[in-house]
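Hi F.,

I've been meaning to write this up properly since the lab meeting, where we talked about keeping a consistent format for the predictions we share between groups. The idea is simple: the sequence comes first, exactly as it goes in, then the structure tokens exactly as they come out, then a line or two of notes. No screenshots and no reformatting. I'm using this chain as the first example so we have something concrete to point to.
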Amino acid sequence: MPRALDQSDLAGPAAAGLPRLALLVGGRAAGRLERELDICTAEDLLRHFPRRYDQRGSLTDLRRLELGEHVTISARVVRVDNRPYVDRRAGASRGGTRPVRTEVVVTDGRAELLLTFFRKPWVSKELRPGVSGLFAGEVQEFRGRLQLLHPDFTLHEGDLEHELTSVRTLADTLLPIYPATEKLASWSIARAVVPVLAAAWEVSDSLPDPLPAQVVRERGLPLLVEAFTKIHQPRTRTDYERARERFRFEEAFVVQVALAKRRQSTRTQRATPRPRRPGALLDAFDARLPYELTAGQREVGQRLAADLERAHPMHRLLQGEVGSGKTVVALRAMLQVVDAGGQAALLAPTEVLAQQHLRSIGALLGDLGEHGMLGGSASGTRVRLLTGSQTAAGRRVALFEAESGEAGIVIGTHALLEDRVAFHDLGLVVVDEQHRFGVEQRAALSGKAGEVRPHVLVMTATPIPRTIAMTVFGDLETSTLAELPAGRQPIQTTVVPARERPGWLERSWRRVVEEVQRGHQAYVVCARIGGQDTQGDSGATATATAADIDPDPDTTDTAMTGADPGAATSRPGRQAAAPAQAAVDVYEALGAGPLAGLRVDLLHGRLTPEDKDAVMRRFAAGDTDVLVATTVVEVGVDVSNASTMVVLDAERYGVSQLHQLRGRVGRGEVEGLCLLVTDLPAGHPGRARLDAVAATTDGFALSRLDVALRREGDVLGTRQSGRRSSLRLLSVVDDEELIGQARERAVALVEADPSLDSTRALQALVDRLLLSSHAAYLDRG
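Output, unedited:
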């Protein structure tokens, strides 16, 4: 453990600063950088790092180009042809002159690529056979050949080479390739970096470093300007690797400092202590529990109870495997708050889940949750539901009982966040499936407690690797439930390759019938609703759009996490390229086909709340054999008699979502069976993902796989769109040890200098991170 930093370590030289970007690169270039890449200052440009490096004098491998990719390539011109063509859109050419299409073929010595220019015959004078240059554009296809249409280009013997050689730390052999756009090529960025780096060296002695000097010394990191030079103009591979090492640590350090400040801020906030009252409602509930709590549930419960007794707000993340018993743990915390005179609000992302919570909590409490009602316990409390689609009368009752305090527990969807919703004494906020809510939404609910902040418990059934937890949820204390309650049955998962083995799909439907005949129930999950986009006699549907993905009236979340819109489906009788199967169509086809004679029902987000609740009640009561549904059943649905799940178009779901879905079966006395139906062939990356899900039921192992397979920006809740993002080089998957070290350093720094007054450069980076539109993941708690 490193020693705590003192003020002498934190003190840095006064910032002389860099000149304005426009003074260094010119107003026109500065304007393009701002418009295209949101680069507004000289420091912004220096922190726009190359994504890779080309060896100067060698050529890029053209065999690795992919359609739709925006590339910068280094290549040599092989041949050039000017071909007249007829422009049908423009009609007959005037004076008999036909426009010219210039085709330039370039090579890297291993493959060739076509460059096409329309109405630019002068290009052939510059791009002569034998000339080498850089070419940038989007990879397209024309008559079976890859091409760049109207690519931007610069020749190697031009001004760029001259400017690069004028820099004091010349990059003789490595050419940086930057994240670029269609209107701003990589070499234009490289050209702009040259004068900015020169200016940085001029003020290097007074340019403040955001990393404490002690950290730089102990880790053997290059100083700031040296690191900028090594990453933008490296002489050797070692140069840019050392620079990247420095900036990876810096990124981790800035994130952890921001989170440490959050934790510190939370500790200074006031909350009403909610100590446990012996012999009250919680004790009565524990005495009635029909089963023993697991060791993990007891341990986490004790931790929550201690948190609730403190005078500053609890901020805790409770994560656990599907079916690990998080709801019971959360309910016990809510009852402790109710015993102490407060109220608890449970925020759920969908009406289906909110209704499920109401039913399950009502069943657990019994008369303890019916205070003031006929047959209710005099020592109990009241549980109310508030959703956006309730009847006016139902909403009036829920609003009154929340504000008056008669309802100790209020369960709701986004409707809880409305201005008209008020609480008598909100002491605990529980957010279920927290990743479905935005920062403002969670803040709006916590704000209903007034100046004294409520305790906050956020829950997720999607296990989170330690690296993600440290980076994304680093301002929360984390508790984990890894142990499943007694009685949970194993789940067998099998991939059904419907196109390769059509008999397997037929066998799947027979297996559903057999399970029903044994007295059990089944789910059939579809990727979209359908019903409004049916075309033609074949029943083929159009490709799913955002409007067709299952919407819940109370949520903006979609049901297509990890979706692959271009994947083929396995619908019987459909063409191979058919889009995702729709629940409405599958419901009709199964009821009239392989599941004829069974009681089949339909559930999706477009149904009214009353209809959705009625469908779920019928299924829970055993009055429905097979429930055809969208992913509204992904979380919270608990029907112990359900033994089988068939997921159609399984390749369209993410790893974590599939793990969540299959957790709906095997919740009773019978082992679960999950069948993942796909048309993807063996060896396809999407098929490999399904095989991985089928190979293990360890949610934590799958969570690491999920992070590895998906873009890291998506995991963090960002979109890496080419504009400035919070993380450039840091990998939350690969840099676990580095993140842990940065966390230790950040804690020591914030304890020594809570306001970061003595390190303005670091404070500027923290502020930049917190103000970034890409940094919402820091507020997930």
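Notes:
Residues 167 and 474 are 41 Å apart (CA to CA).
Confidence is low (pLDDT under 50) at residues 1-16, 158-172, 533-577, 711-725.

If this format works for you, I'll send the rest the same way.

G.
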